[in-house]
Amino acid sequence: MTSPSLKRSLACLWWVLMAFLYLPLAVVVLFSFNSINSSALFESFSLRWYERLWGNEQIMASLGHSLVLAIISSVIAVVIGTLMGYGLYRYRARRLGWLIVLIYLPIVMPDIVFGISNMTFFVRLSSLTGWLSPGLGTMVLSHVTFQIPFVALIAYSRFLGLDATLFDAAKDLYASPFDRARHFIVPSIKPALVSAFFLSFTLSIDDFVISFFTAGPESSTLPIYIWGAIRKGVTPEINAIASLMIAAVAVAAVISLAFTRSKGSDASR
Amino acid sequence: MKRGITETLANESTARKASSITLEGVEKSFSRDAIALDGVDLTIKAGEFFTLLGPSGCGKTTLLRILAGLDTPNAGVVSIGGVDVTAVPPHKRSVNTVFQSYALFPHLSVEDNIGFGLKMQGVDKAERTRRVREMAEFIKLSPLLSRRIHQLSGGQRQRIALARALVCEPDVLLLDEPLSALDAGLRGELQVELQRIQRRLGMTFVFVTHDQQEAMVMSDRIAVLNDGKIQQLDTPRAVFERPANAFVARFMGHSNLLEIKRRGADRLDTAIGPLTLPAEGEHMNDGDLVLIRPETIELGDDALGQPNRFDATVVESFYRGSHFEYRLQVEDVALTAFSSNQGQKLFAADDRVPISISPSDLMTVRGEGG
Q1: Under CATH, which number does the domain A57-267 receive?
Q2: Is the pLDDT at B258 greater than 80, yes or no?
């Protein structure tokens, strides 16, 4: 039993937390619509900073890089991560629990360690062989590397939610290994795959540290551009970019969550 | 061209092809001390309703999975319709299974679930739709075709699982305890229906269950399994009335097994006293036990003046509608007796009642060790 006063103070704490989380974001969004170049005084509503963005080639180029990087890396990560998740599930009886640690490691590894080690590796490799000089290619590789564990874990948990007899039933009903993948496995975990894609997309769009260390001179993404621009001070333009990123990431996160939920209701029966 | 199920039904003179199954020396173990099947030899006739009966862990489900191709035996040969299929993967066997959990695909509608096997076999869409509709009609689930699986009851899912397997018209249909999750009334109905379907299609059915009543109602022949070995293979009546050993006797519900202390030409000494044997005598081995089936024990006035007469004390009595069940004590031995309800008095606990067992109802069975 909770007393009414405790309930009230818990509710209060909740609102304080929400304010702490979302107020700074709200301020950024608000000032992106400011008509004057000030981060202290809001004069009137205007879209001029968004128009300025549109005209800024550098920003448009980094936005393009961010999107290309996020989409390509997420697609690759979903394919490889799903295979990995299936492998973990398929051979779960063989005491492969310790492999999970290898998968978790990139998730818990500090981004800066991950970024620097990737950079060192790529620089060394390209100076020795001429392959993989820093650019979008190396960024895709690094992003795929940190996205895979998330995809693998989402796919694995979805497989665990399936009735194991379904795999037998598919075999019993004349499905060859390829047919099983196409007509049973992929359709059964489709919501998890969509969710994994949007999560990977969000992770990639968000990432600054790893991108920063693996990018080449011609492949800076939005976060890298912002970091460079911000040294000259926070301009309303930056607020506008940030607001767009908040919107994009929020949409991807909501889609990802929606599909995770629908997976849950499906698996309950 | 395979004929449709309804064509087969309409034209009973041309029964469809059914396949026999032969197992020779089939062995399967999952680890060194988990032996599931210990050298099983078995022939299942074409068009037979065959039941694998046994307690959980006896190897019956493993045997079924080996027939389906879902497990591979460590040794031995499996033939279906005279063809060695030991190394044939499940998706290339003309065998379909009704799984205990039904295993219906949650991402597909009822219609697509039933049509899944046909689709995988490359049957074109028009033909597939026709056969699925026809099967749905036959199994009486046409109104459900567009539903999703999670909207259905257990009984409906069971029928869909059956339809999904039958529509492929396999040489052999395997059923893994398909009725165990249903309530008693529905189970009884489906037992009768399954048996009727099997008779009408003339398909070979291999049915797995741990329920001896279910096995007796449905089967042409029963194989009783324990510890990965076949204990007895015979008709339901023979398995019930002439159990091959003490395990089968107990499993079929006979609880009265008495050790033989000493035996003579026409009589045996047991813990309840001397028993007179039938005139033709019984062939006996060391370690054999005497089996007294509960329904063969006469109670009260019927027992008076009969051979093999004893005085029993009623420990408990149960009214079971069509019959009475008694837990009796004779000397220090517990006996179970059933007497059919013909309006007679139900004896109460502590009543002293005379009982008798006709010599012709006595039989000896091999003990657990034998």
Answers
A1: 1.10.3720.10
A2: yes
